[in-house]
Design goal:
766 residues; mainly alpha; 2 domains; 27 helices; 76% helix; transport; phosphate transmembrane transporter activity; PhoU-like_sf
Length: 766
């Protein structure tokens, strides 16, 4: 039996490393987003700064915080065998939960997950003990620190509201004073902003980054025998005042004489500060439980007492974490930061919700988001009646965004927001976390940084009428995910603890195997999703301002739609022939994705037209027609895919052999048409379009022929109304698909100028 505990220790060590990986992937969003979103500095520089912060934070980590040892449960109430079950249940649940959130790209709190996992596993074990001892449910309070859980929940609610409100207020005031032309403001304005921002961030570094470490809790003669933490608390007003003067003067010197952007410097320092605090204080969320388990095993192994009789009361004592473990943890965290693709996925969610302008929205609106937006619109209208018109005009001028030329500045290269908002995000998050730390209020750095970013986005008018309902829905989804984290962490940890207690020797290897399989499955699913997102045949927005330029730019899009459309059409026919429901279901997803990409291109028409000069209006007419025909094609394909899936899913009669044979003939003819069309666009041999158009009558006659044959069959031998309806629906929609395709080709054939070489146009567009 002793061997099972050794196996559990080894498993906890492996799970600790894995938890570091998934934890950093989730929490990287906290300190990378502002720098990445603003594109103030290169990605490589951002990663180097963050890596230094993470590494230093790990080395100077506060190590073993009470939350993993005695913050949630009363250790003297549990024996060694019970505590090992609790720790094992917590780590298995934690790694699976965080990996799930990383896979779907949603930021969540590692602090809340670890707390509620400890709470769930402890409650389960306490109830088992109470049941064996013949106690009552009320005895749970003897085993659990209920006040801690209450504080955490209160901290969640408070941090969400305060972070959002303060972030919005500070951003609104900052934008009102600085406007979007912040680089052209007087030097002293930037110096004061820099002084306030850097002071708040450096105070945050001392209070949260260094003040929370074990070194800050030791006494030093140089500061009168008090601890660093006590010294920082007592001298806080003086430190803040001196820092404000020093950093303001230094900021002025950097702006006036060194010609440096103070906003860029604030972003660099802020990124370092949040990375330092994250590593120094959140490290316990990943390795605290495994180290507590290892120390428990060491104490029990040398005692000679049976696992069921060895009390864990010693966990209430403070035991420092070995430095070499902190160094190893720091190395794993830095490596994860550089190589984790899931970290980038989680980061994209927050940047997407806080970005300037419109575009493809990830979240769909719901009744709550619509209600909040209506409420905000009503409040805005009421405010417009209260404020004088002159005030409103001045405020609107400060919030007026600069016009960006989309040809000179490619849309995918533009920052999600400017450096003022990035600096405010870092500054406000640093201040709030520092204040909460000094007041010993529990909060999550994830919640604070995310809600500050959302509040500043709202105040900065990044959520316009076109996008507000989607962005608010996204925020509500993320907040809902946070509470989901707490509930699922509690329940899952409790269930796993119960299973382990039922038969620890059998369930440890089984649950570890299940965990490994789920992690591998999530990894493969995320990799496949990433591959789809980076697929070569994804559609791209046109950015040229001439007809010939748009022809060349959109050729790849046409080739992509034709290629993917051909596959969808063929799969629909094959799925019907084989009654393959899975193929038809997958086919539906593929055409929905293609349709959404075409819709996204149409959504970009406004910006495309706004970017044209007066001499290039013809390009807009051509582009609009092209997108209209593409949409007609995808709608026809979507209809064919849907009716095919519906027919098989409802278990209707199979199509007859002759019907399948005729549909295959049509599919083969369309395959030739689509392949020729795709080759013409891929090679930009637009003169071949005329040859393809010459075969329109032939293909139309083929489809019409098949329709006539079915009419004759229906009158003489057909006995299934469903089959007849399906067959006619597919052929009639195929005619619409053919017409849309030919209209598209005619548009290109009529507009293309053979004298304009593709190579020259590409060069002109660069």
């Amino acid at each position: 039996m002793d061997n099972i505990y050794l196996l559990m220790i080894v498993a906890l060590a492996v799970l600790a490393i894995a938890d570091l990986v998934v934890g950093v992937s989730n929490d990287a969003v906290n300190f990378l987003n502002s720098a990445i979103g603003s594109k103030a500095i290169s990605f490589k520089t951002i990663m180097i700064v963050a890596s230094i912060g993470v590494a230093l934070g790990a080395v100077f980590s506060s190590g073993m915080m009470e939350v993993a040892r005695s913050g949630i449960f009363n250790p003297h109430e549990f024996m060694f065998n019970e505590i090992m079950i609790i720790f094992m249940a917590v780590m298995i649940t934690d790694i699976l939960l965080l990996d799930f959130f990383n896979t779907v790209g949603m930021p969540t709190s590692t602090t809340v997950s670890i707390v509620f996992e400890l709470l769930g596993a402890s409650v389960a074990m306490a109830l088992i003990k109470i049941g064996h001892n013949g106690g009552t449910f009320s005895d749970v309070v003897n085993y659990i620190n209920t006040s801690k859980a209450t504080e955490i929940i209160f901290g969640i609610l408070l941090s969400v509201v305060i972070a959002f409100s303060v972030g919005a207020m500070v951003q609104w005031v900052s934008r009102l004073l600085l406007s979007y032309n912040y680089e052209k403001q007087a030097n002293w304005v930037g110096a004061i902003f820099g002084g306030i921002a850097i002071t708040s961030i450096t105070y945050f570094i001392f209070m949260k980054g260094i003040g929370g470490t074990s070194y800050a809790k030791e006494s030093y003669d140089i500061i009168g025998g008090s601890t660093i933490k006590e010294f920082l608390s007592k001298q806080a007003p003086l430190i803040i005042f001196v820092s404000l003067i020093f950093w303001s003067l230094l900021s002025y010197a950097l702006i006036a004489f060194a010609k440096q952007s103070i906003y860029k410097i604030v972003i660099i320092i802020g990124t370092f500060a949040l990375a330092l605090a994250f590593s120094g204080n959140d490290l316990v969320n990943f390795i605290g439980v495994p180290i507590a388990g290892w120390q428990s095993y060491t104490a029990w192994a040398g005692s000679g007492v049976s696992p069921e009789a060895f009390s864990m009361g010693f966990l209430a004592d403070k035991v420092p974490t070995p430095t070499f473990l902190l160094v190893v943890a720091g190395f794993v965290m830095v490596a994860t930061l550089w190589f984790s693709k899931k970290a980038k996925t989680v980061t994209e969610t927050e940047i997407n919700l806080s970005r300037e302008g419109d575009g493809k929205e990830r979240f769909q609106p719901n009744f709550l988001s619509r209600g909040f937006v209506r409420l905000a619109v009503g409040a805005s209208e009421m405010l417009s009646y209260i404020l004088p018109q002159t005030w409103q005009a001045k405020i609107d001028k400060q919030f007026e965004k600069p016009v960006i030329n989309l040809v000179k500045s490619k849309t995918h290269e533009l920052p999600a927001f400017d450096m003022v908002r990035a600096a405010v995000n870092l500054m406000v998050a640093a201040i709030l976390i520092s204040l909460a730390t000094s007041m010993k209020l529990p909060l999550s750095t994830t919640y604070v940084t995310f809600m500050v970013a959302m509040g500043s986005s709202l105040a900065d008018r990044a959520w316009g009428a076109e996008s507000a309902v989607y962005r608010v829905a996204g925020v509500l989804n993320v907040i809902g995910g946070w509470f989901f984290t707490a509930i699922i962490a509690f329940v899952a940890a409790a269930i796993i603890a119960y299973l382990l207690n039922w038969n620890v020797a059998a369930m440890v290897p089984v649950l570890l195997l299940v965990a490994i399989l789920l992690l591998v499955r999530n990894y493969i699913a995320h990799r496949e999703k990433s591959k789809e997102a980076k697929a070569e045949d994804s559609l791209t927005k046109a950015e040229s301002s001439s007809i010939q330029g748009v022809i060349i730019e959109s050729a790849k899009n046409i080739a992509s739609v034709i290629k993917r459309g051909n596959k969808v059409y063929t799969n629909s026919i094959n799925g019907l022939a084989k009654q393959d429901l899975q193929l038809l279901k997958k086919n539906k997803k593929q055409i929905v994705k293609l349709s959404s990409e075409v819709d996204e291109l149409r959504d970009n028409i406004f910006y495309f037209i706004k970017n044209l000069d007066d001499s290039s209006v013809g390009a807009s007419n051509f582009y609009i027609h092209i997108l209209s025909y593409l949409q007609d094609m995808t709608q026809s394909l979507e209809y064919i895919s849907n009716v095919s899936y519906k027919h098989v899913n409802n278990n209707h009669k199979k199509l007859k052999f002759n019907q399948i044979k005729e549909l295959k003939e049509v599919d083969e003819r369309f395959e030739v048409l689509f392949n020729n069309t795709r080759n013409a666009f891929e090679t930009q041999s637009f003169e071949e379009i005329g040859i393809i158009l010459g075969r329109k009558t032939e293909i139309t006659s083929l489809v019409t022929n098949k329709i006539q044959k079915q009419v004759e069959r229906t009158r003489t031998e057909e006995s299934s109304p469903k089959n007849t309806t399906l067959y006619f629906s597919i052929l009639l929609e195929t005619k619409d698909l053919l017409n849309a395709t030919m209209n598209l080709l005619e548009e290109y054939h009529n507009a293309h100028d053979a004298k304009v070489a593709p190579a020259r146009i590409n060069k002109d567009q660069e």
